[in-house]
Amino acid sequence: MTTRTALRICPLCEATCGLALTIEGEGPDGVVTGARGDRDDVFSAGFVCPKGAAFGSLDADPDRLTAPLVRRDGELREASWAQAFQAVADGLGTGKEGVALVLGNPNVHTVAGALYVPLLARALTNRALFSASTVDQMPKQVACGYLYGDPLAFPVPDLDRTDHLLIVGANPLVSNGSLTTAPDFPGRLKALRARGGRLTVIDPKRTRTARLADRHIAPRPGTDAALLLAMAHVLLAEGLATPVESVAGLDEVRDLLAPLTPEAVAAHCDVEAGTVRELARELAAAPTAAVYGRMGSTTVEFGTLTSWAVDLLTILTGNLDRPGGALFPRSATATVRPPGPGRGFRIGRWHSRVSGHPEVMSELPLAALAEELDTPGEGRLRYVITVAANPVLSAPDGERLERALADCAFMVSVDPYLNETTRHADVVLPPPRPTQSAHFDFAFNALAVRHNVRYSRPAVPLPAGRPDECAILTRLALIAGGAPPDTDPAALDALAVDFLLRRAVAQPHSPVHGQDPAALATRLTGADGAERRLDLMLRLGPYGEGFGADPDGLSLAALLAHPHGIDLGPLRPRLAEVLKTPSGLIELCPEPIAADLPRLLASLDRRPGELVLIGRRHLRSNNSWMHNVPELSGGTNRCTLQVHPRDAERLGLTDGAAARIKGDGGEITAEVELTGELRPGVVSLPHGWGHDRPGTRTSVAAAHPGANVNQLLDGSRLDPLSGTAVLNGFPVQVSPAEAP
Ligand SMILES: Nc1nc2c(c(=O)[nH]1)N[C@H]1C(S)=C(S)[C@@H](COP(=O)(O)OP(=O)(O)OC[C@H]3O[C@@H](n4cnc5c(=O)[nH]c(N)nc54)[C@H](O)[C@@H]3O)O[C@H]1N2
Ligand SMILES: Nc1nc2c(c(=O)[nH]1)N[C@H]1C(S)=C(S)[C@@H](COP(=O)(O)OP(=O)(O)OC[C@H]3O[C@@H](n4cnc5c(=O)[nH]c(N)nc54)[C@H](O)[C@@H]3O)O[C@H]1N2
Ligand code: SF4
Ligand SMILES: [Mo]
């Protein structure tokens, strides 16, 4: 048997480590028999975590679907690709008005998600887009949208150069980082401390990240907005604020935060006023500093306010857009825009039908998907397309959603597994395994702590007749757009290329200004449409060769010549290029955000009920879909209810016994695990569990199903500005239960 090595960027989390895969066997049958970190990778330099090391098992999982499934006489059966696409065309029929498009997390990790999902969304042209963003980072997008005029302009902490990092509600030692792409995040935090820098962690749990910190603050969950805004109050009151020049609204912020003194928030947050002052002074005194917030700062009652506060602190301490602070990465495939004011950001251009939630970045809250499907009346969504999503487990009230999915007129899922969500589909279209897919990080290059660009072609070829995920989504887009069945799929790529080129040649600052788009299109290289589109984006991007304008610049050919990637240097200040607010300044005090502050002020006197629940992640997991890999299951990766011993005593719970947990949306049972790491009054359950449904095909996961924490929610607790579900810090009741 032949053995060879192939390079492949890991798609399993946001760290984007370069892997060196050992592959045995020829052609489409090649299997991964080993995975290690690629020591020569320009960005990850050999780092790999247990998930990356298990890449081969995940890739070869025998439960992965290898052929499409089509429902006939109530049962999902294997079918040919032609039959499956025909079934989709028949099933969607003329129902295009009422199609919900549901996008899950892996879309940010695939070429198909970046390049073809937008084409599918455009073909559907309706206003029913739902994604994992509204159970994740949407509050950050709203805050950045208002502050900088661009909801995708995320400042990223300059991890390798900062003197002081304040982490709010993130656990990168386990998650490997999010909205900040940094292979070996743990090593980079240790390096920060080794060079004399300071790490502060705000988290109701003493997590692995908190244990590494110089200072750990454990506030009451959901109170960070008040805590951080009180810190901002201190900066302003004590004359410690030294914001960058290009800000508007500083006086308005000062007035707005006047009531938020450390004393006013201390009891609410359960953090002493003196500590709030110290935190603010330390941040201001550090030569450079960055504030970094993640899930514990977004998926909470005041998610947008907290996200705004995170950036406010960075801005007020003069740390935005400077080395060692937080900077805006410049991705190799970004659209180059001339500096100058923009149109700004707004939400609510339309509203959801049932509860009237405002659209945010063209999306409606994932938590509202079930009601949009099951509530009768005009405009009811009757058709569902899911791509890489398992909302039955990842969104609130999966039981209601399951009933709605079972009842809809037609559902198609693009997914490699038959799981809790896809078991309701009428057609399942499985993409090939990761080794058979190309990889490029369109999303994460824009979040990386160091500029770089890397590309992996498929390590193993596809069998004849099997479409890759780009081809699957192309066909779906053509069907959704009503194209005749014999339409050449290449037409869609040609349209996308033409669109970008026409726009470029019309722009005076573009290196191809005034040229002929058709002639430029013929110069693109690449083995398929996706590669040609990547080539185009690279060539016209900020480091591009500009169709000959800069012979040393980037193109697909240059990337292919550098299999371990190309380093493009450290992050650099570029605020002027980023700002797209109408004023051309950072709009520090956006009206919609200011209007949400009274809600926060009103909550200050409220003492929440006895117990609140927060989530947690495990190192060897990834949301709902990695419990099926034997190497990644068992051990500490279990769905237990963590409880502080003091609470356990009060509630009559013992270690290893079963507990019943009740919330707005239902009740579940889980095994109790006592831990002193939680602050009392807080219990913790991981998400992505509940693999006990019939009709799924995830045999390893089904053996240890766990319980679905999101069943405790009914979908009504949302951060109003972003439509994001409150997944952290919601009230629950816990009592002893019979063993499950
Ligand atoms: N309570 C609670 N709930 C949470 C969270 C929490 O912290 N607490 N976290 C939230 C967050 S941050 C997120 S991002 C969401 C994630 O929730 P989802 O977006 O639903 O994502 P996953 O659970 O990761 O499920 C991914 C699906 O994609 C499929 N898949 C895997 N690889 C591919 C591929 O290459 N192509 C395609 N087409 N499909 C693929 C898997 O089989 C699975 O069905 O969960 C959210 N839900
Ligand atoms: N191993 C592994 N890695 C992953 C994933 C996974 O499932 N497993 N999922 C990936 C995804 S989709 C994402 S979005 C990222 C998420 O990346 P992170 O946000 O780093 O991961 P979490 O574990 O959700 O960390 C949230 C932290 O917030 C804390 N917290 C909860 N409530 C509050 C609060 O009210 N205030 C404060 N200050 N803290 C609070 C929790 O205790 C927890 O430590 O991880 C990614 N990486
Ligand atoms: S840290 Fe993330 S990207 Fe790196 S090997 Fe692990 S799962 Fe893959
Ligand atoms: Mo996420």
The count of DSSP E runs of length 2 or more, i.e. the number of strands, is 31
Q: What Rg do the Cα atoms give?
A: 25 Å
**Relative helix content:** 25-40%
The biggest sheet amounts to: 7 strands, mixed
Attached small molecules: ligand MGD, iron/sulfur cluster, molybdenum atom
Overall, the morphology is globular
CATH superfamily of the domain at 138-334 and 574-600: Dimethylsulfoxide Reductase, domain 2
Average predicted local confidence, pLDDT = 96
The first-to-last residue Cα distance is 48 Å
CATH architecture name of the domain at 138-334 and 574-600: 3-Layer(aba) Sandwich
The name of the CATH topology of the domain at 138-334 and 574-600 is: Dimethylsulfoxide Reductase, domain 2
Could you say which structural class the secondary elements and strand pairing correspond to?
alpha/beta
Low-confidence stretches: none
Number of helices: 28
CATH class of the domain at 138-334 and 574-600: Alpha Beta
The share of residues in extended strands comes to 15-25%
Spatial strand arrangement across the major sheet: 5-4-17-16-15-6-7
Protein name: Molybdopterin oxidoreductase family protein
InterPro entries: Asp_de-COase-like_dom_sf (IPR009010), MoPterin_dinucl-bd_dom (IPR006657), Mopterin_OxRdtase (IPR006656), Mopterin_OxRdtase_4Fe-4S_dom (IPR006963), Prok_molybdopt-oxidoreductase (IPR050123)
Domain 4Fe-4S Mo/W bis-MGD-type: 3-63
Keywords: 4Fe-4S, Iron, Iron-sulfur, Metal-binding, Oxidoreductase
